[in-house]
Here is the input.
Amino acid sequence: MSLRTHFSIIGAIVGKDLREFSRDRFWMVLTPIALVAYIGLFWLLPATVDETISVGVYQRGLDAVIAEIGVDEASGLEIVEFASPAALEAAVDAGDRVSIGIAFPDDLLEALAAGRQTTVTLFVDAAVPNELQTAVRALVREIAFELAGVGLPVTQPGEELVVLGEDRIGRQVSPQEEMRPLLVFFVLLVESLALAGLVAVEVQARTAKAITVTPATVAHLLAAKGITGTLLAFGQAVILLVAIASFGNEPLLLLGGVLVGAIMVSGVGMIAGSAGRDFMTTLFTSVVLMVPLAIPAIAALFPGTASGWVQVLPTYGVVQTIVGVTIHGFDWAEAAGYLAMAAGWCVALFGAGWIVLQRRVEALERRARAARPAQGSAPGSPLAGLSVGDRLPDRRHARDPARVRQLVRPQAAPRNRRRRSLRDHDGRRRDRGHRAVAGWLD
Amino acid sequence: MGSSAVVPSASQSTDARAATTGSAASAVPAIEVEDLAYSYGPIEAVRGISFQVAQGEIFGFLGPNGAGKTTTIRVLTGQLRPKSGTARILGREVGRDDPVLQARIGVCFEEKNLYDSMSAEENLRFFASLYGIRGLDAEALLRRVGLGDRVKERVGAYSKGLRQRLMIARALGNTPEVLFLDEPTVGLDPVSSRAVRSIIREEAARGAAVLLTTHDMWEADELSDRVAFINEGRLYAVDTPENLKLRYGKRSVRIRRRDGEAVREEAVPLDEAGAGERLAAAVETEGLLTIHTEESTLENIFVEMTGRRLEQ
Here is the structure.
């Protein structure tokens, strides 16, 4: 068989699969809705991270000090003044612009000058973390020292800030960027479910059998399934990536990572499709397989949280490649390790899907056969225990009992049977490599 | 077991068929099975069967459910590899992927494994593309099986009978030299069954060898040049239906006559000594009402040979 014929057969099966997919109402409705939802969700998420902390202030006669604190935008601190402590409290309570408020008493300067105890009121929203509350307390004390003209009783050391890794001050990873790998992975995983459905139908309706009695072989069928799954997953992932503007850095590297992911989930789809006995069990199996595979993508939402065990999950390399390229500007050298890890898992999962699918069909046939009762003998049959060759005596001997006895001979003697059983045993051993193919065919 | 080449019997009814099974055509048997065995684990489904089918011959494979008919077809079509023995189709050994051989056979399965979401035409075109056939006249093929007016209809909407017709059309798509039909008329109404039988005869007349499994003995008798009885994986007999009936059937004449007020019935076995005299005497008896000849059916012979009924 020429290479062209191989491609022609695989192409025909892929075309058929895509036609079936396009006529499945469930997927035809779900796929565009999911894509639009993912794209919409991405663009609804904030594209930037607001690093400025707004602090509400009520004060009388402290304008100079407050202005000195609030003018520096780079400090990330914004001062919002209020006309009364009540207005400040109401604003913090409502979460209107500010979540922290500092109400200085009207007699603050006099009290400080007189050395009299006074109280500065801090209003904080319940959601404000402790660290920020502590920082604001420190800020109030520093203002008090400033106003009182008393320095701290220590000599402050000089400061040198050393940022390890990429300094993203002023350009923090936005929720949009954090969500990108997760969305891509959702598309891949959902399409693995679509492939699982196609495979399950092919197995359960036994149309695979009809294909493999033609010049198409099991290998053609499996290759076509892999290509169909990869095309569906990769195609939609690329549409998503284009729609969410992800091709700024190293587009080929990004496509490579997504392609490896698409092949990987095709293997998962083949496993799920072989495991399912009907739509529900296929769906259930797919979801069970998807959950661990989705963990690395979810972990990407919280940088630095991926535990050791997450890093050995099959999809970790793919997710890290996507994250690296789209967020951290990875080049091929930086992504090579992750990509290699993903490629290894890809081969393993696709190979597993290939084998499991073959075995599944074989097991189905074995079970169907084993369920049938063993054939009993034919009691009362005049020919029970006899075997007949393919040529009975011709008509002129039909009434000759001796001739009939000669041609209708007793069942093979035990010795012969033993010899045959040995042949059978050898045959089974020889056939081991072929049984999987036979299972598909059956 | 039978080793000589099988020549279709003299009972073949058409000159065309006789021509296709002449010496040149039958030099290589279309199907050649020798001591073939297959088992599913501990269950021996086929136990050392041997037979041959000539080109242009319709060979009926008869037996009850679980007799080994379908397993034999699976082995012959390359779906299962024989545990022992050999099977050759058109001179090529089966049992491994052989696209050249697969391109020359057609298979109609018992289960209706069609693509429901595709139309009949699309189903046929898809399978034709696997054979490398471009430009298949699917409409003509569908007209031939009586589906000419449902070409574009999705198969999911087809009844069982319509699906069966499409299964047969699919098996014919590559103009096969050997046709395997597993229960081809199951689920069909009498008119459709007749149409399918007609197609089978046409295929044989064109020169295709047809291996037909069925447990409909009437159909086998009507259609087959030769039949094989299979039960528990063993072949019990292989011959023409006529020879089987002559050899194993019990012929008799049933005579009814009036005896006073009563009606008496008497069976005169023709294969016993003195049957002619008894028959003559019965005919000359006064009060003769009716005379009916009785011949054994294939089913009677099958039951006698195997002790099982076909519908078991």
